[in-house]
């Protein structure tokens, strides 16, 4: 099925549901994508009253449908109605939480091409209004996940726009970001990192 952005540009592959990559042996995350891990984590948080975080739905306009059988319909072409902002939002301890989740196969740096200008603008707007905003980044082949504050991501994006490098070195993410160890329940306990980074005085 062909999905297209507003304006007609073809959407190539899902940011989070791309072909699954082999991961290091880890009982908690074997074969799971970042999106699946985060969805399970958010369900864990909601069920236990820890936080209310949801994946934002993406509005889609269906334009072509085939009916190979009378009882079945197959969507052949669709458009995103509008550019998406970030993947997840909600509330924790009275504060608005907003974040984007991305994966890369790269082992040494996180390519900035995984983000879009409208997402960066949205993050800046959230921060300007006092919201907590960050990116959760996974190096899928290394099975390592980090939380990186949006301010650092925005700074690197602006440097790229001015002709700087087009990726964030992994060593920089290790230095300025926060490693999130993989677990069983929750799978990616990013709220414990949020508590430490944004709520501890």
TrEMBL record:
InterPro entries: Resolv_RecU, Restrct_endonuc-II-like, tRNA_endonuc-like_dom_sf. It is found in: Cytoplasm. Mg(2+) binds at residues 85, 87, 100, 119. It catalyses: Endonucleolytic cleavage at a junction such as a reciprocal single-stranded crossover between two homologous DNA duplexes (Holliday junction). Its cofactor is Mg(2+). Its EC number is 3.1.21.10. It comes from the Bacteria. Its main location: cytoplasm. It holds the Pfam family RecU. The record marks 102 as: Transition state stabilizer. The keyword Magnesium applies. The keyword Cytoplasm applies. Keywords: Cytoplasm, DNA damage, DNA recombination, DNA repair, Endonuclease, Hydrolase, Magnesium, Metal-binding, Nuclease. Binds 1 Mg(2+) ion per subunit. Belongs to the RecU family. NCBIfam families: PRK02234.1-2, PRK02234.1-5, recU. Endonuclease that resolves Holliday junction intermediates in genetic recombination. Cleaves mobile four-strand junctions by introducing symmetrical nicks in paired strands. Promotes annealing of linear ssDNA with homologous dsDNA. Required for DNA repair, homologous recombination and chromosome segregation. This is Holliday junction resolvase RecU. The gene is recU.
């Amino acid at each position: 099925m062909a999905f297209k952005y507003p304006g007609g540009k073809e959407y190539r592959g899902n940011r989070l549901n791309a072909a699954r990559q082999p991961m290091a042996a880890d009982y908690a995350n074997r074969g799971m994508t970042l999106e699946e891990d985060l969805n399970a984590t958010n369900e864990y948080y909601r069920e236990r009253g820890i936080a209310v975080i949801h994946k934002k739905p993406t509005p889609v306009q269906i334009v072509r449908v085939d009916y190979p059988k009378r009882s079945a319909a197959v969507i052949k072409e669709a458009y995103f109605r509008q550019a998406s902002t970030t993947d997840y939002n909600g509330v924790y301890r009275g504060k608005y939480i907003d974040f984007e989740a991305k994966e890369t196969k790269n082992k040494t740096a996180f390519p900035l091409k995984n983000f879009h200008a409208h997402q960066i603008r949205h993050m800046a707007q959230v921060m300007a209004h006092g919201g907590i905003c960050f990116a959760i980044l996974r190096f899928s082949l290394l099975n390592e996940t980090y939380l990186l504050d949006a301010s650092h991501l925005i700074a690197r994006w602006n440097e790229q726009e001015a002709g700087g490098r087009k990726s964030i070195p992994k060593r920089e993410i290790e230095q300025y970001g926060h490693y999130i160890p993989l677990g069983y329940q929750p799978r990616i306990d990013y709220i414990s990192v949020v508590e430490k980074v944004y709520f501890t005085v």
